Amino acid sequence: MKTYTEYLIIGQGIAGxxxxxxxxMLGKSFVIIDNGYRTSSSIVAAGTINPxxxxxxxxxxxxxxxWPALTETYRNISAWTEREVIRNLPIIxxxxxxxxxxxxxxxxxxxxxxxxxxxHSDPGNMLAQIEKALAYGEISGxxxxxxxxxxxxxxxxxxxxxxxxxxxxxxxxLEQTGNQWKYEDIITEKVIFCEGHKVMENPFxxxxxxxxxxxxxxxxxxEDPFDKSLRDKTFITxxxxxxxxxxxxxxxxxxxxxxxxxxxxxxxxxxxDAILRVPYKVVDHIAGIxxxxxxxxPFAGAHPTLPNLFIFNGLGxxxxxxxxxxARQLVQLMENQIPMDVEVALR
Length: 347
Ligand SMILES: Cc1cc2nc3c(=O)[nH]c(=O)nc-3n(C[C@H](O)[C@H](O)[C@H](O)COP(=O)(O)OP(=O)(O)OC[C@H]3O[C@@H](n4cnc5c(N)ncnc54)[C@H](O)[C@@H]3O)c2cc1C
Known about the structure:
The protein is α+β, with helices and mostly antiparallel strands. The chain folds into two domains: 3-44 and 148-209 and 295-336, FAD/NAD(P)-binding domain (3-Layer(bba) Sandwich), CATH 3.50.50.60; 90-141 and 213-290, 2-Layer Sandwich (D-Amino Acid Oxidase, Chain A, domain 2), CATH 3.30.9.10. The protein is built from six helices and 21 strands. It has helices at residues 14-25, 63-81, 98-108, 147-160, 262-275, 319-336, and strands at 3-10, 30-34, 48-49, 52-53, 58-59, 86-88, 91-95, 117-118, 135-139, 143-145, 164-166, 174-177, 180-183, 186-193, 213-221, 229-231, 235-238, 244-248, 281-290, 299-302, 309-313. The strands form four sheets. Strands 1, 2, 11, 12, 13, 14, 20 and 21 form an eight-stranded mixed beta sheet that branches. Helix 2 (63-81) packs across helix 6. The model has no long low-confidence stretch (mean pLDDT 96). It binds flavin-adenine dinucleotide. Residues 11-16, 33-35, 37-42, 44-48, 168-169, 194-196, 198, 215, 217, 248-249, 288, 290-291, 313, 315-321 line the site of flavin-adenine dinucleotide.
């Protein structure tokens, strides 16, 4: 028996989930195919939503537009799932030199940064547990998405409504029939590819310049859980789940397997040894591949020649921050032909 649906979404990471959520809220029909997070970057992410990044403490690209969108979307998802999926979680930045401190103070005194930075930082209970830095800054506008809980929650809801198929999608199985597409027994108006770094195997979007990058993290137990995140030589982020903290993550462009490596474990442990004055216990080691792009901007939009094929990918290191704003834009393109932002339009 054939199934008709307006949208077929490939991949249920944060990209596919946010798109499906927007479509769901509009009352659209959709089916998602995901292979059980087998190569998911989202499922290993810390879910940190950080408005101030890099060595120069600059505002995340488009932060002033992203923050209202993500606050509203995750509030709506919390209501829909009846679970608080996001929380405010400030990040304490260790400042190790006068140069760093001066650069930080420059930002704190800049009115364009006032929504995101606190004038006087308060590291709280971590202070007694870490080696002392020269000074600390506080990113008060940071948040944490409980992404590892959120994705299975969304999946369970859609599965119960017969909108979710757990399977491996094969590109060869997709057939064009006029302006529609057929995949196994599904007939659909539009297909949206959200398969994360596995997009490198997608024959329809080979023209896009992806630049995937691996990251690894250790999940560690610390007896007295931090009440804020710490950004020092590495990130130490409390998971809000007892003693568990997410610590990492480096960047590797060479090894693009999903497997954790001994080298990365040693590197993160060395960083933790240098930061922490209290014991910690490693309980897990995870790895994933960020779907980054050469231009460090997402890709969202329509295939240049094939009708009704779309992509939402390239969220790189910031899926939780970029996802809500650009998922909405893509839905506006697909439903109302409102053009995408030029910076993410496909090139
Ligand atoms: C170690 C690490 C830490 C990170 N920390 C953060 C962070 O703190 N904050 C943040 O915002 N971002 C973070 N990121 C980046 C973030 O994970 C990505 O930006 C985001 O998850 C990308 O989401 P996605 O939906 O595009 O891809 P994915 O999450 O990879 O989702 C793609 C899905 O498609 C499925 N799939 C692929 N191919 C097929 C197929 N053929 N058939 C069926 N299913 C398929 C996969 O199994 C997966 O479930 C981190 C990434 C890593 C690796």
